[in-house]
Amino acid sequence: MQRPLPEMASLLKTSPVPIRTKFLHQIGLSLYNTSHGFHEEEVKKKLQQFPGGSVDLQKEENGLGILTLNNPSKMNAFSGVMMLQLLEKVIELENWTEGKGVIVYGAKNTFSSGSDLNAVKALGTPEDGMAVCMFMQNTLTRFMRLPLISVALVQGWALGGGAEFTTACDFRLMTTESEIRFVHREMGIIPSWGGAARLAEIIGSRQALKVLSGALRLDSEKALHIGIADEVLQSSDETECLREAREWLQQFIKGPPEVIRALKKSISSGRELCLEEALQMERDLLGTVWGGPANLEAIARRGKFKK
Q1: 208, 229, 285, 290: which has the fewest C-beta neighbours closer than 10 Å?
Q2: pLDDT score recorded for residue 6
Q3: What is the DSSP string of 229-277?
Q4: Longest dimension (CA), the chain
Q5: What pLDDT, on the 0 to 100 scale, is given for residue 304?
């Protein structure tokens, strides 16, 4: 990323401490720690006991990442090991300075059916439930704050925790036969991976309450109507869907990584910070791109057009 000019660097140092602690350092920062009763290493040891499936990441030279949920024999349900691998892949994406976008999808034409029931049954105490809740909220919040534009490609079903994962993405693309459903009510629980809070932000609290309390089946048409889906793809073939999703996302990630990443950070700060802090964050981000190669090239190009 282009280093800020010296005068801009001095401006960055004048940012109030709350901004830097709340946002600039939030990439890689978890919501919960030991002060909240969360002991990550203990949770990891428990999750390690439940193998199966994988979370795979492919990073391409054009700055696009493909994150695959791969446990097709269980509709890509998250085993404990997959939860651990998801955190590893998020950390890898945090450190991918050339990254601009990421597509999340499930193997074999199904997004994800949520948590593997074997792990759910074994982790049956309220303490266990809250520990996994904090682990997954940490992971998906870090995913949501990535300076990458993210898309959930929903083929087949996105159920329970799978539905929650889609809300951590910036956009959601669906196939005509796909369905998103928050089945938590029918399981006698509520969303625990941050899905309720994010869903309310995406479609509004009244609509989110209907979706969650009714355990509504959101087919592609209904999801598009209420605003949880951004577009319905023409194909239902796994390979062709991924190609369509790539093309769709490409329109939003054209340009240098430092510009796309700064844009995503500015939108994230506007969502998470108060207005004054978000504006100051926008100023600081501007200092990382103003006078940079992309900016100077664009100015020169415009000058040529005017001659």
Answers
A1: 290
A2: 45
A3: -SEE-S--SHHHHHHHHHHHHHTTS-S-HHHHHHHHHHHHHHHHS-HHH
A4: 72
A5: 60
